[in-house]
Amino acid sequence: MVSRRSLFLGMAGVAAVAGAGGWAASRVGVQPEPPAPPGQDEAGRLLWRNWSGIQTAYPAQRAAPGSEGELAALVRTAPGPLRAVGSGHSFMPLVPTPGTLVTLDRMTGLISHDKATSTAVAWGGTRLADLGAALAGIGQEMPNLPDINKQSLAGATATGTHGTGATLPALHGNITALRLVTGRGDILDCDVARNAELFQAARLGLGAFGIVTQVTLQNSPLKRVERNVWLQPLEQTLADWPRLHQAHRNIEFYYLPFTDMTAVITHDETDEPATVRPPAQDNEALLDLKKLRDWLGWSPALRRRVARQVMSGLEPERVVDESWRLLSNERPVRFNEMEFHLPLEAQVGALQEVIAAIEGQRNDVFFPIEARIVAPDDAWLSPFQGRMTGSIAVHAYYKDQYDFLYQLVEPIMRRHGGRPHWGKLNSLKRADFAALYPRFNDAAELRRQMDPEGRFLNDYLRGVFADA
Which residues are listed as membrane-spanning (predicted)? Predict the structure, then answer.
């Protein structure tokens, strides 16, 4: 990872020399795959599993409707709870159901667009990667994109998926209208004038207010951006963070555990011609970072010195291309993740506490810690509602234990007023959400009105909304 491309390519050889010996050799390559659940249960129902492998279910029925009419009929008759699934990239139990698992994979692509206003209507099952290419074909782009673009449009917006940039809201912040199928099987159009309260709740609705079938997006004209990646000390990045996030359209940084270094990544609009992008090497780089942990995890000081030695010779990266090609990245190495969204003024202090806690107690952590900034919006369940937000995301390799996220990281985030990403690990309950979101009780009541029988509520969401 590091330069998002090639920071640790030379590190394996240096670490091998520095950490040679029986302990280092015994650590390399010893981790087995996590135990896999049975492929089917006693009733013969097939396993569903999320991307990282920690959420599972054996739904009684699976459905892939090809139209809104088919979906509406399904909602009225299929065994509940009905849960819509996109790419399964959420780490929380939003999808698992013993009832009906619904995919919108047959409802994808662009429906219409307006060149004059740079708006476009897309089916909810469209993957973000496919949507980027389709919008580029009509001269449009989404103003911002997340780091990973494998999610479906409806799934990404339902959980508050976001990119980074002080003037750029999360994906749902650019929804101007949507269409959904309610728990009664009705098809409703929602925007600021039609079903306005439902619009404010359902554009980030966890799939609890209905299944979103169509989304209208306020996009921007297609443009190129210049992407720059460079390394600098953590202390310098934190001191310069207020200036950095005001100076760049997109800005984020990764702290590299046990190195005192950060990788800063910016994207800014440009008229310069596109350049050749280096081959993606994220998988190899991250595994090299893991090797450094395996070989030198017993000595944080030596681990830090070796990492700094390799980083000192690495050059900055610069590339120019259309933004939809550069903002998202391939992430083949699986992980589990906790992300909290804090008041911007609390971000730096909270991050310093997180780093101190991890480096003081968990030498096994090697995944970079991500810091981003998100503009406010007014969706009822948006973690960014009403405030400029600084986000902190902490990752754990999918083969590693991730209990430290709850034990060390979450208490710090909560103490600083953080709201969790809806799709990422957290232990918050109904009372916590009611305290964090001014319109939470209104959203819960509206949800009951739209879905009085709880057709869309699995066990987790019943706890969130306190439905019996």
Answer: none
